[in-house]
Specification:
Elements: H1 2-47, H2 50-105, E1 184-189, E2 195-197, E3 202-209, E4 211-212, E5 236-247, E6 263-267, E7 275-280, E8 287-297, E9 316-322, E10 358-359, E11 365-366
Parallel strand pairs: 2-9, 4-5
Antiparallel strand pairs: 1-3, 3-7, 5-6, 5-8, 8-9, 10-11
Helix pairs in contact: 1-2
Length: 406
């Protein structure tokens, strides 16, 4: 019993102590529980605040990620743009380089670079390794004289024009025929020494070989503007011209003036049966004349052949125009005894002999010879400084216009 009483006594003390401590414990619980609730709420927010909180946070994170992604994307885009720009620039540069390479490799005719395969090494030799009396040294070049015209800065580039004051032409000579394909020509009418009626129409005819005639370019735009070319048979592709110059006499020994001529015509049509023709529709005044051909390539440059020693590529003949029975009388009928008449220049003691016979270059015997000089003032071979014009010749054989600044 005593033991039971002791146990109950201890229990009562414990209970009493509990009752005494209960208010304190209640306050402690009131303080602790809200803090716990707050802490739990924070934990809930951390873990999702429920799901909505988590979604909100996750959404915020996505926004940041989106911003970061946008920034990264923009950065990437910028980098990409920069790279693309660089790539484009690189592509442009590469394209230019490729174009140059393509020009050099695939189309050398449009390239601005000299292809090493066409450099003529012999141009570097001045030719004086075997000197000859009177021989001068050649100009030399290691780049085919491609910039030669820079050595004459006072002259314009020819550039396809007929520049009467002089120019520098950069076009190369071009292709050159073999010796067996060198052109040659011979007048059939008039023949050397012939006499044609004065002031009457006549036809010049000329046989020609080894020239593909009928090929001419625009002389006002493409003069000397391209190299000489050959056809499939190795002949020069070109055309011919005829020019008539008035002389003071058939035995004239002084040089003529190339700026003056009585008749000029470009023979633009192809030869028919190997013969070219030109109609002198107005004829020529009574006088002595020289008739010559000018055989050229298509761009009007004189024909170029492979060797220095060769026969003439052109023909020249001498003839007179005059009245029947008075050949060589250049309109000076009263000068029958003139000691200066052709073929009788030395017959001073026979100046008044109207029957003296003059042999005008074997053109025919005349009772009196002419002093062609007396006709020069009115002859078309001495025109005022103006344009020489012929009729245009096309496929039907007309005459083309040729303009010359006198």
């Amino acid at each position: 019993m005593k033991s039971l009483f002791s146990i109950l006594s201890i229990a009562m003390k414990f209970f009493a102590t509990f009752l005494l401590l209960l208010p304190v414990l209640s306050q402690a619980g009131a303080i602790t529980v809200p803090r716990l609730a707050a802490r739990q709420a924070q934990e809930l927010k951390k873990t999702g605040g429920g799901t909505g909180g988590t979604g909100g946070k996750t959404g915020g994170g996505n926004t940041n990620n989106n911003n970061n992604a946008t920034s990264t994307s923009q950065s990437t885009a910028n980098n990409s743009t920069a790279n693309n720009s660089t790539a484009n620039n690189s592509t442009a540069n590469n394209s230019a380089a490729n174009n140059n390479n393509n020009n050099a490799n695939n189309d050398p005719q449009t390239s601005l670079t000299l292809d090493p395969k066409v450099i003529a090494s012999g141009f570097a030799n001045n030719g004086q390794n075997v000197p000859t009396a009177g021989q001068v040294a050649s100009l030399t070049s290691t780049n085919n004289f491609i910039n030669f015209c820079l050595t004459v800065p006072n002259l314009p580039i020819t550039n396809g024009k007929q520049i009467t004051t002089g120019s520098c032409n950069p076009a190369p000579i071009g292709t050159i025929p073999s010796t067996s394909n060198m052109p040659s020509a011979k007048f059939q009418n008039p023949k050397n020494g012939d006499t044609v009626p004065a002031n009457q129409a006549f036809t010049i005819s000329m046989a020609i070989q080894n020239l593909e005639t009928g090929n001419f370019v625009n002389a006002q735009e493409n003069y000397f503007a391209a190299p000489q070319q050959l056809n499939g048979q190795g002949q020069i592709v070109g055309h011919s011209h005829v020019v008539v110059e008035q002389l003071s006499a058939l035995d004239q020994t002084t040089p003529t003036d190339p700026t003056k001529f009585a008749f000029f015509k470009g023979l633009n049509a192809a030869a028919q049966g190997g013969v070219l023709t030109a109609d002198v529709t107005s004829g020529l005044p009574a006088a002595a004349y020289r008739l010559c051909s000018i055989n050229t390539a298509a761009n009007h440059q004189p024909a170029i052949v492979p060797v220095a020693q060769h026969g003439a590529l052109d023909d020249c003949i001498y003839f007179t125009a005059g009245n029947a029975g008075n050949a060589g009388n250049a309109g000076n009928a009263g000068n029958a005894g003139n000691a200066g008449n052709a073929g009788n220049a030395g017959n001073a003691g026979n100046a008044g002999n109207a029957t003296t016979t003059a042999n005008a270059g074997n053109a025919g015997t005349a009772t009196t010879t002419a002093n062609p000089t007396s006709a020069q003032g009115t002859s078309p071979s001495n025109p005022p400084k103006s344009t020489q014009t012929g009729k245009k010749q096309g496929g039907k054989g007309g005459r083309r216009s040729i303009n010359f600044a006198q």
